[in-house]
């Protein structure tokens, strides 16, 4: 640009000298008629400018305008003081909240009482009386097995008892008769002892027959499968016509009125555990709904592989809302207090003292804070000093805003309603 301006100035001076000299027009015409290439070092642009001084003046004005534009300040510099927009999801308001601290645990829910009903005798399943999900009481028949052989054994044992009773009656009478004869001197002592022995033997045989009858009756009763507890049938393993052997599973009955959570915590946190401590947890499939139980048992030994302590949490489930087998995650509330709390992702821990970014009078300022207990499950931490209730702080990606920057919270857009 400076070179073009120089050429324009040279062209204007040359044009002025040509106009002032005598015969300037002819000299000018001579110059115009001569080829620019014949004058070494003289640019073609200058030659054109000598012919058209007005055009040269226009070029000068244009060059000055371009130069002025090059030196003009950038629009971004003027907008440097505009506030930075911060979305509502990147701010948090300091509020007083319930803060809980304690070991985090997880595990599966199991019923407090569960009974696996198995076959105690062999035989074919004649009929089933309960289905999965059906409520049953203690002693309710669940199924009936074939009892032909066992009933025959029962009748035989019952007949043996009757025979043994008659034999025992006869033996007792003979012993009593022998006692009287021996007292009168009409019977030898040897015969008296024999009568007594026969009576005792008959009594022993009667007791044995009665025991066999009781066993046969008990075995016959096992052909009717009954529920050992009051609860709900959670599983039915057999159907009518199946042949079962002793020990085969038939039904599973659970008591859903009480559940238990089997979990484990690190050995380092054993000091804060105590029997009866409240446990709050959520269950997979129930959303954010919270449940509560209490620590019922703590294992006296740690797992040698994981170094964790097993514990059992008892959970009342009178309404039957909880289902066994689901995964639960919660925390033992070893310490509970109310105080100011902020999200984890609002705290800057890179320095020696924790700090947060607070919006004060439309600008960001860095504030040092003192932290208290940490609520791992709710992902928030207690603030003991440095902030007041109602303060607005930056979280998430907004923490990258430099202190002193002017900010403005961007309101959430209103939902768009579609017209039908």
Describe, in plain words, how this protein is organized in 3D.
The protein has helices at residues 2-20, 24-33, 44-51, 53-71, 75-78, 148-184, 189-221, and strands at 84-87, 91-93, 95-101, 104-118, 123-128, 135-136, 141-145, 224-226, 231-236, 243-244, 249-266, 278-283, 290-302, 308-316, 327-332, 335-343, 355-360, 363-368, 370-375, 380-385, 392-394, 407-410. By secondary structure, the protein is an alpha+beta fold. The chain folds into 4 domains: 2-71, no CATH class; 87-97 and 337-410, conserved putative lor/sdh protein from methanococcus maripaludis s2 fold (Beta Barrel), CATH 2.40.420; 104-111 and 254-335, Elongation Factor Tu (Ef-tu), domain 3 (Beta Barrel), CATH 2.40.30.170; 147-222, Helix Hairpins (Orthogonal Bundle), CATH 1.10.287. The strands form 6 sheets. A 6-stranded antiparallel β-barrel has the order 4-11-14-13-12-15. A 4-stranded antiparallel beta sheet has the order 3-16-20-19, with no helix packed on it. Strand 19 (370-375) and strand 20 (380-385) form a beta hairpin. The protein is elongated and about 135 Å long. The two termini are 63 Å apart.
Describe the secondary-structure layout.
Elements lengths: L1 H19 L3 H10 L10 H8 L1 H19 L3 H4 L5 E4 L3 E3 L1 E7 L2 E15 L4 E6 L6 E2 L4 E5 L2 H37 L4 H33 L2 E3 L4 E6 L6 E2 L4 E18 L11 E6 L6 E13 L5 E9 L10 E6 L2 E9 L11 E6 L2 E6 L1 E6 L4 E6 L6 E3 L12 E4 L10
Parallel strand pairs: 1-22
Antiparallel strand pairs: 2-21, 3-16, 4-11, 4-15, 5-7, 5-10, 6-9, 7-8, 9-11, 11-14, 12-13, 12-15, 13-14, 16-20, 17-18, 19-20
Helix pairs in contact: 1-2, 1-3, 1-4, 6-7
